[in-house]
Design a protein that fits this description.
Strand content: under 5%
Number of helices: 5
Shape: extended
Radius of gyration: 19 Å
Structural class: mainly alpha
Strand order of the largest sheet: 1-2
Distance between the termini: 50 Å
Order of helices and strands: EHEHHHH
Largest sheet: 2 strands, antiparallel
Mean pLDDT: 81
């Protein structure tokens, strides 16, 4: 930030980062060509320096609607909109639930913009 070389920390730690590791392992050679398992300290710092203790009551136990406020945010959003719930964790739409995520997106765009299906 001050013109110095960036400092890095590992993006995926040796333990406790299974969701991230699964995501990285699922990348094709082309998708992972620039992956170096690092994140700048400047990007990482806010994630560890933020006091999340006030959020714990909102996520414990996890509400039925997934993320706290997700349902409310969806209700406030203007049309066109569609809320799709996929099984898994943060990276699942890119890995284990990728086919379902793609199908939902294709259906939404086709319906919303009245696109004819691919032949």
């Amino acid at each position: 930030m001050a013109g110095n070389e960036p400092q890095y920390v590992p993006f995926v730690r040796d333990s406790g980062d299974d969701a991230k590791r699964d995501f990285i392992d699922s990348l094709s050679t082309e998708e992972g060509r620039n992956y170096h398992n690092r994140i700048t300290l400047q990007s990482y710092s806010p994630t560890i320096l933020t006091d999340i203790s006030t959020l714990v009551p909102q996520i414990s136990p996890t509400p039925d609607d997934g993320l706290p406020g997700q349902k409310q945010a969806y209700e406030l959003a203007k049309e066109p909109k569609l809320l799709v719930t996929l099984k898994g964790h943060h990276f699942s739409p890119y890995t284990t639930s990728k086919s379902a995520a793609i199908e939902a997106a294709k259906n939404w765009f086709s319906h919303t913009f009245e696109l004819s299906p691919e032949k």
